[in-house]
Design brief:
mainly alpha
């Protein structure tokens, strides 16, 4: 779907292995995490596609994605999402749209 989801799942797999989770536990955690990431990513994409972006909805979605990324170990993406929330402007919106492949 999106490169960031695949990247986050790879990071999470390694993280869960280091924590000592069994393979079946990892599979369940990854399935749940992927579902949540896809759901929130689709929500964010829809927000970003609107003509007049609702900043509160955008911030809420960025916050939710940040939390998912942190839980799955993708700290670099979580940091980027925080940066977007903290300094939202036209340039940052364009960067965000590029990350999520919105034209």
């Amino acid at each position: 779907m999106y490169d960031i989801i695949d990247e986050t799942l790879k990071i999470a797999t390694e993280r869960f292995k280091k924590f000592g989770f069994k393979e079946e536990q990892i599979t369940k955690l990854l399935k749940s995490g992927k579902d949540d990431l896809e759901k929130e990513t689709l929500k964010l994409v829809e927000i970003l596609k609107t003509q007049d972006i609702d900043i509160k909805k955008l911030n809420d979605s960025l916050h939710a994605l940040k939390g998912l990324c942190l839980n799955m170990g993708n700290n670099s993406l979580a940091d980027k999402l925080v940066e977007f929330r903290d300094s939202l402007n036209t340039t940052k919106l364009d960067e965000l749209k590029q990350i999520f492949k919105i034209k």
